Amino acid sequence: MTDPTMPIGTSAARPVTGTAESLFLSADRMAAGPGYIPSLDGIRAISILLVLFAHHISDRLFPGGLGVYVFFVISGFLITRLLFSERKKQNTTNLFSFYSRRFLRLYPVVTVYTLVIVAIYSISHLPIDWAQPLSALFYFANYLYAGRMLDPATSTPMPFGIFWSLSLEEHFYLAFPLLFVLVRGKPRILAWTIVGVCLTCLLWRLTAAVLHPEYLSTDIIYMRTDFRADSIGYGVLLAAMCELEGGRRFIRAASCPAMWGAALGIILICLLIRDPFFRQTLRYTLFGITLVLLIACVLFDSRLKLLQIVLNHPVPVWIGRLSYSLYVWHYLPRLLGPLLLGGAMPIGIRMAFDIGVAFAVALMSYYLVERPALTLRQRLGSRARAAD
């Protein structure tokens, strides 16, 4: 879905899997700095597989929305950490360079995907609602699709609905660096500002749910940036806490088996509760708090070695590096299947086709679109790999 992990700063080499240094960040590396962040590619892999399986196998068995939420938290954490690292090294924040790198990281794949979908629709003589591809290219898909949910007269959705989350993230990429510059990169001020954002979003969701109960049966609150900005904000808060001695102490104190169990239990309860009011309001806040805790444990706690070994295995790392292209392209098989294979397919064949094609197209996107764009990003000062 969103911008995959990983190295922040200058690291180009991947640590050797299995060594202690490669599995987690020690206390002296919690604050932003150069170097690869272990386990994040693996977390990204789990997240994209949740989304993929939810859309192609069963959204009842696999919580795709939770996978998207993890993407949000990681994005907030990584971008904030990147800005802190740059400010420490250069004593400034180069907004032009930041926006240029984000553009080259995200836009080439979005553009190619949009052109391919429009071409398929044109060749197949399917009706094109131009607002939908434009919403992908200009990142207003979340508001477009949310705005149409209460209008039964709107046109048939094209395969651009997944861009709701990319639109939300792009809004963050546009606005957050300006906030970072405004607070002059001071982590304490940034942390309290984000706490205010998270509380405001919760109050705004509660207000909307009370004043517009019709929203509760739709994805309006789920999609719109003004309701969900806190989902990325929790990742920002984690990165800001890592810059403060008190924040680092709190993270280390919270990283204990009792807290792991409590966080996992809260997530499970949130997934099981079906009440629409809870699911559209408080659930997002509880998800954010618990995911920040769990991600912090995985990144910084040496007691989770077994899980960290799994997350840093080459297979999940490879999937994590493909996650952005996988997210963008994974709806394409649902369009191609009926066109290429005709009518109804056995469910097993359909699932194998969808997932196989998604990985095949993601690989082509990664090597033919993302990696070439990396060369241009490096000229703008990025030392990240194509997956970053």
How does this structure look, described?
By secondary structure, the protein is an all-alpha fold. Helix content is 71%, strand content 0%. It has 18 helices and no strands. Mean pLDDT is 89; it is low at 2-18.
Task: Summarize the structure in short.
The chain has 388 residues and is mostly helical.
Quantity of strands, as a count: 0
**Overall helicity:** over 70%
Stretches with pLDDT under 50, minimum 5 residues = 2-18
Helical stretch count?
Answer: 18
Structural class: mainly alpha
Which keywords apply here?
388 residues, mainly alpha, 18 helices, globular, disordered N terminus
Question: Would you spell out the secondary-structure blueprint of this structure?
Answer:
Elements: H1 20-23, H2 40-56, H3 64-90, H4 95-123, H5 131-137, H6 141-148, H7 163-182, H8 187-211, H9 220-223, H10 225-242, H11 245-254, H12 257-272, H13 276-280, H14 282-300, H15 305-311, H16 314-329, H17 332-341, H18 347-379
Helix pairs in contact: 2-3, 2-16, 3-7, 3-10, 3-14, 4-7, 4-18, 6-7, 7-10, 8-10, 10-11, 10-14, 12-14, 16-18, 17-18
